[in-house]
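Why should sequence recovery work at all? Because a backbone constrains its sequence more than one might expect. Tight turns favour small or flexible residues, buried strands favour hydrophobic ones, and helices have their own preferences. The token representation captures these environments compactly. In the example below, the structure is given first.
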């Protein structure tokens, strides 16, 4: 089996939908955003290099990100492919990716801009297992306690504020959205309606994957 790309604007629901896709396909989730945040938390050179870009809502330079993913897909758990979340985000990244990984489908989660700010600004996640929640759209069953692992240590992302989200959206429209056409021309772009309940988005995606 080859790899799947989860594509969409910030807050589209890429991270939210990734777990179900991983459960269905066995492909490990490779989120470049999560990898950069882990590097930042660990205080590595990569993390320090990425920080200013992430804080400003700008894309980290292509050569940094491409190298990171190229190394990641060499790991043992990636032999049957990976589920890419947040990569590629520029044409240059997609061209580089095509040289080292076979992509079977690009699932594009479509959400209008006006829905993005409220999604991002209400997001929190579990420090224990990484599960993603939302104050209104997807709260934990017991306040501030993870449904999955029971941890009460919830965190918010440094870049989840209105100003930075606007910059992330600008970066998406100018640098990332042209990729939809790029993959469309190659016949592997599969749009899904991301502007509906989380469970309905998930059902559309799983149906799509099962039909391949
Ligand atoms: P990254 O971490 O990838 O952030 P992003 O693309 O901005 O996407 P998000 O993680 O914010 O959104 P998501 O689609 O995963 O949404 P989620 O499921 O959490 O990147 C961060 C930064 O790293 C970038 O700005 C850049 O600097 C750098 N970077 C990363 N990759 C890079 C690359 N390839 N090249 C260059 N730089 C790179 O959902 C959001 C919220 O909405 C949650 O609270 C969730 O509960 C809720 N929600 C989800 N689905 C629904 C629904 N259907 N209805 C209602 N609420 C929903
Ligand atoms: Mg994400
Ligand atoms: Zn948890």
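From this structural description, the recovered sequence reads:
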């Amino acid at each position: 089996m080859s790899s799947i790309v989860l594509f969409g604007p910030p807050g589209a629901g890429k991270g939210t939908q990734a777990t179900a896709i991983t459960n269905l396909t066995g492909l490990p989730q490779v989120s470049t955003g999560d990898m950069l945040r882990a590097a930042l938390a660990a205080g590595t050179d990569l993390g320090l290099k990425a920080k200013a870009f992430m804080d400003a809502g700008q894309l980290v330079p292509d050569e940094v990100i491409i190298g990171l993913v190229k190394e990641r897909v060499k790991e043992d758990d990636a032999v049957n492919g990976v589920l890419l979340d947040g990569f590629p985000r520029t044409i240059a990244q997609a061209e580089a990716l095509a040289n080292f990984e076979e992509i079977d489908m690009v699932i594009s989660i479509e959400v209008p801009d006006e829905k993005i700010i409220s999604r991002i600004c209400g997001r929190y996640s579990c420090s224990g297992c990484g599960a993603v929640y939302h104050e209104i759209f997807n709260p934990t069953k017991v306040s501030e306690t993870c449904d999955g692992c029971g941890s009460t240590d919830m965190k918010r992302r440094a870049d989840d504020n209105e100003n930075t989200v606007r910059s992330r959206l600008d970066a998406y429209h100018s640098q990332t959205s042209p990729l939809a056409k790029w993959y469309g021309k190659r016949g592997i772009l599969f749009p899904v309606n991301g502007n509906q309940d989380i469970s309905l988005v998930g059902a559309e995606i799983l149906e799509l994957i099962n039909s391949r």
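A few observations help interpret the result. The chain has a mean pLDDT of 97.
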